[in-house]
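Bit of a strange request maybe. I'm writing a small parser for structure token strings and I need a real example to test against, not something I typed by hand. Could someone generate the tokens for this chain?
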Amino acid sequence: MAKAASRTTVRAAAYWIVTLMLAVSITLSGIGQLMRLGGNVELVTAIGFPLYVTNILGTWKLLGVLAIVMPGFPRLKEWAYSGIFFLMTGAALSHAFANDYGDGGFHMLLPLFYAALCLASWALRPHNRRL
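Reply from user aminoacidic:
Good idea to test on real output. This should exercise your parser:
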């Protein structure tokens, strides 16, 4: 009985650590895109997207994080997880197709890292956050 409780506690801690890492990362990224800070203009225009895309992506990111961290709404959470996953893998692929890999592949590796965090958070989520 104690082992099961211990596993549940470890799983819950892992979930919150991963989810907070994801939430902070995606929130900062979304704010950066909405405010067009830290090279976001160059990142988007270098791969041929119009600048207004930063408004769309930044808004989606912030809404997705909000859906993931707020209590309740398990169906909305599923959509938010899938949206963040597709957003991040789409970013990596967009940079790859535009031959804009960045230093050491950073423009592809960072969004793929965020996608991995998203998958880990989804897989570790507690039963009350599932459908």
